Records
---
Amino acid sequence: MREIDASLITDAVKRLSIEANCHLTDDIKYCIASAREREEWGAAREILDRIIENYTIADEMDQPVCQDTGVACVFLKIGQDVHVTGDISEAVNEGVRRGYSEGYLRKSVVADPLERVNTGDNTPAMIYYELVPGDKLEITVAPKGFGSENMSRIAMLRPSDGIEGVKDFVLKTVEEAGPNPCPPIVVGVGIGGTFDKAAYLAKRALLRPVDVRNEKPLYRALEEELLEAINSLGIGPQGFGGRTTALAVNIEEYPTHIAGLPVAVNINCHVTRHKTEVL
Amino acid sequence: MPKRITAQLSREAARELRAGDSCLISGVIYTARDAAHKRLCELVKEGKPLPIDLKDSIIYFVGPTPAKPGQAIGSAGPTTSYRMDAYSPTLIALGQTGMIGKGKRGDEVVAAMKQHGAVYFGAIGGCGALLSSCIKSAEVVAYEDLGAEAIRRLEVVDLPVTVIIDSEGNNLYKSGREEYLASLGR
């Protein structure tokens, strides 16, 4: 059994919160830059240029890429041979509290969905725990903005709807979102499981680098086909028209019930943020 | 060439703008988003005075990140505008002439824009670090308790925006997409 002090989790979450909000990962930057090269519509190219200029400024000035520094989604993969001394969820929340304060990040969480009073420190985080073999503890912080979160949808399709039903639902969701989630977007799709599991899969899909495809040929082909179909809609960057509506479609699948075909679509904007550390 | 706009923005000047126009805004504008809009409209309902003068005003839908030492403001890009649809017609009727945000607007907002003469601008969503450099000063003028959602008075220089919906109801989201698809022969 390996001991990990809870304060190490706090320190990591603090660092990751600041780092993720101010510096995009290389995969998303490369994807935006290559979309800019492929884009043929002038107005769309200009917007992609501004987006590149924006993340460059954010890098240089350690400045948040977007003012919506999100709700902190924290994914913990805890090795079964790890024992954490202290309260894990409190350690995560303390890391968020410090990161959002010391990093000059926006506090965007209200304590109650109906009473709506800001908690003032961006806590609580949305924490997802997963137990895995081993003696390591992996922490990923993914700040999630709500312009795109609000455009996310879930459907409980019939098995007879099949792959065509899945495609229709993903395309309909992106079409209805239109300019609202700040395209170009990244589309996380969860297929299978239960109602809640599909939504979780869709969110987890957004953690995968945009240049890594699903390992299964069926889903890899579906990712590629959906990306092409979305980029034929004409919505374009910011919805002003153009090819570049989406940068990637990431699908995660899971076994499901004989009677069901749950599909969740979790949309992210071009400011797709996540950073990971392993303790 | 972008059009230069000075805020405050008169009804007449607002009516001259057309969907698709690139503009650079300089002058004084105000920030407000969900919670501030709700409070403003509650005051209107109760017949009480408002903390800002809406006549010829431009409101930027934004909740900025905190300013670091030496900065006027932190990152400050637009938030999605449809959440303000329930409130914008009331404020437009009271003199507001411009809104800066991103995303679609409801029919009731477009009707108020056409009736009174107002324009809806889009700033690039997700470009908060870039847009921040156009904001020279920021001062909280109401609802400090709302934090990022407080109403701020901003002095801006050459804030880059595009007219999405004009006072005749023309919509760049529709026309821009149609033009692009037409260029592909679709």
---
Amino acid sequence: MGISAYLALASVLFGIGAVGFLTRRNMLIQLMSIELMLNSVNVLLLAFNRAYPGNHDGQAFAFFVIAVAAAEAAVGLAIVIAYFRVRQTIETDRATLLKY
Amino acid sequence: MTGAGATLFVVTAIFAIVGALITVAARRPLRAAMGLLVHIVSLAGMFLTLNAHLLAALQLLVYAGAIVVLFVFVIMLIGPEAETGPIEGRLVSRSTAGALTLAVFLVVATSLGGFDAAWVTVDADFGTVEGLGFAIYRNALVPFELISITLLVAIIGAIAIARSPTE
């Protein structure tokens, strides 16, 4: 078992996250699905860096991905709270304020 | 990869997939957050098999310690309205989503499928705090400073967005 097991696992996890983001209508769970996809990319970066360990570029990229995910979660959850204050729901189907 | 590393990989992979499925399929957002927690902790264990010790610690600190707690806070703040059905939406959007996801998965799996690399040995400081810290501060100092500014802007933006308009 080599690096390919990690690649297969990362694509499975990315697929699960994509299913969650596309099929759920709950804004919080959609944000969690984005976190799943970012995490699967981290697995991929670390696996490739482990396969070619001449430098730390993949791990440095994963470090920045984690930092960006933290910023994304903070802003996304703030948007969820602001949206809930306006509409009293967190379903994305009812986010139609800019539609008409 | 042999022995204990392979065993740890299999165990953490199973827990990561189960946690991800709980996150995506849970009816209650709090259960989804707990599934995300299982997923993140098992991925931190998997990072250890990839010689990424510092990133395993960061995964626990930032994801399990900050992001999941933030999710739980927001779920508690919103209350019972946070709960909606398991898989909502019309049949058209659901089947389109399924087809798109299958297409993405097939593209990724076929492009990665033929690849395999030898499990080479690494230096003693690969992935440790010292090794990765030197790599970041020597080769990625400007991105490191930019990411700190990004986090500061995100904090200010989150406060500005979530503040109630009456204040």
